[in-house]
Structure formats: C-alpha cells, structure tokens
C-alpha cells in the first residue's frame, strides 16, 4: 500500500515550509499554497535562489494555523511578527520566471517588513489576483496555478529520496542525510513502491482527489541550499547528475494538476495509474 506521509504548504513562495495534517485542493493546487510572493521592482519573482534570507521567513495563514483570523502572519528571527491585512490596492503585472500574471501588492507596512528581512529596498509582497495559465504542452485549456514555478502540486516519494541518499553514501562513504525539505514537495508518499516508480505514473488518486501527472521536475541550484544553515554545497545536484540526468537537466519528483476539488489528509491511500 502507498500512502500520503506528509503535506507541505508554502504560504509565501520560497519561504519556510509549513507541514499540515490535511489540506483542501482546488484547481490551483493546495489551497493556501504559494498564493503570496515577493517581487522586485520589475515585478519578477524573488526566490531563495538569489535571496536566501527568504528561507528565514515563516508565513502562516488559517490553512496552516487553525483559527488564525488574519490573511497572513509573517515572522522571522530578530524581527517582530507582523499581521498582513488583505491587500486593497490595484492589481499589477508580475512575472514568475518571465511568465506574466497579475497580483495585488500588500500594504506599506508589510512591504517594509519584507524589505527589512530580505535586505533589499526594491522588493514588494504581493497576493495572487489572477491565476497563471499552464503550459499547454502538458496541460489542458483552463488549467492554471498561483505562484508555483511550473504546475500546481509537486510530489516526491520517500523511496526515491532513500535511493538518492544511498547513492550519496556510495560516493562519500558517509551516511547520506539529505532531507526531503531540499526538494520542497507539496506531497510526500511512502509505503510499498520502488525508487522513482512515480516517474511512470499518468494519474494518481490521493484520498478523494485525482491528479494528472504533467511531467517530472527538473531540479535547480536551490536544492543545494540548506534551509537551516543557509549554506550551499554540491548535493543533491552532484548525485542527481550522476544518476538522474537527461535532456540537459537533473530530475526528482513529479508535477501534478488537480482533476477535481476536495480534501486530502496525511495517511490517505495513494493510488497511481
């Protein structure tokens, strides 16, 4: 049996991971996931690829903290916690790695707070206003996402991570201790499956929700950034390049598109097809 072992939401794109026992799913992915984002003066997304202090920001919403009565709460070491009001200004054009969509800037207080934490005077916090249509090569008309890099939901398996850790040990002679957090999946599955079995899935049912598999996930340098220490090293790209490299990229996990709405919970059966 394969089951859902972890659900992760990122209220603000490229900030701290929030593990939750259950989540609602809508057409844009897990409700509350990556619906906020930090952008630069040109409206382009700012991520921990270039501004690693984003990883120190913890965003909470009522999707991650039951009973929270504000749209977004932000905290970071050495900074006072701030409650972010519902944005009320006009929508602006923003881009996620060059792909355009529209978002609403947060108020000045929230913007000032983010600028202080990130250490940049040109950044702004925004909330999604209009979803971004997905690449029609792998999606259907009407499929969309909020601020995800590619597709609404990402999935990885414990079996695949364990295999990467074994490969790392073979090279270094030391115990591979790469955490799943390096890959920032929304869904982690465990149980009776082989490493990278998920590569061949076409659909997957989690609890009562069915997802289509869009494609695999090509991995970038952000996986080499340790979210705890904010230091970088060669793993896991070095190991993936030895064992999981094709089409000029390294691969780990899969991208999903919801076929319907519903709810999922840790422990749900996972049925691939």
Automatic annotation (TrEMBL):
Domain of life: Bacteria
InterPro entries per the UniProt record, alphabetical: MoCF_Sase_C, MOCOS_middle, Pyrv_Knase-like_insert_dom_sf
Domain MOSC: 126-273
GO function term, MF aspect, one: molybdenum ion binding
A Pfam cross-reference name: MOSC_N
Record's signal peptide: none
PANTHER family with a match to the protein in the record: MITOCHONDRIAL AMIDOXIME REDUCING COMPONENT 1, MOLYBDOPTERIN COFACTOR SULFURASE MOSC
Designated name of the protein: MOSC domain-containing protein
Organism listed in the record: Nostocoides jenkinsii Ben 74
């Amino acid at each position: 049996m394969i089951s859902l072992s972890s659900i992760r939401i990122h209220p603000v794109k490229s900030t701290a991971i929030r593990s939750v026992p259950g989540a609602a799913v809508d057409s844009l992915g897990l409700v509350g996931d990556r619906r906020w984002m930090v952008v630069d003066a040109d409206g382009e997304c700012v991520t921990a690829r270039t501004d690693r202090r984003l990883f120190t920001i913890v965003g909470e919403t009522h999707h991650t903290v039951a009973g929270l009565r504000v749209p977004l709460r932000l905290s970071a070491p050495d900074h006072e916690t701030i409650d972010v009001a519902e944005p009320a200004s006009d929508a602006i054009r923003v881009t996620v790695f060059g792909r355009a969509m529209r978002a609403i800037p947060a108020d000045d207080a929230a913007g000032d707070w983010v600028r202080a934490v990130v250490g940049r005077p040109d950044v702004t916090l925004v909330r999604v206003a209009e979803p971004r249509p997905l690449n029609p090569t792998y999606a259907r008309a009407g499929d969309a996402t909020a601020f995800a890099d590619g597709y609404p939901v990402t999935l990885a398996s414990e079996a695949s991570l364990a295999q990467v850790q074994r490969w790392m040990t073979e090279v270094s002679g030391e115990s591979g201790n790469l955490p799943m957090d390096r890959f920032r999946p929304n869904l982690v599955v465990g149980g009776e499956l082989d490493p990278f079995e998920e590569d061949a899935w076409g659909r997957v049912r989690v609890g009562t929700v069915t997802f289509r598999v869009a494609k695999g996930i090509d991995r970038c340098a952000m996986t080499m950034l340790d979210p705890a220490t904010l230091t970088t090293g060669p793993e896991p790209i070095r190991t993936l390049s030895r064992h999981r490299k094709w089409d000029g990229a390294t691969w780990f996990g899969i991208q999903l598109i919801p076929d319907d709405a519903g709810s999922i919970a840790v422990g749900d059966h996972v049925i691939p097809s």
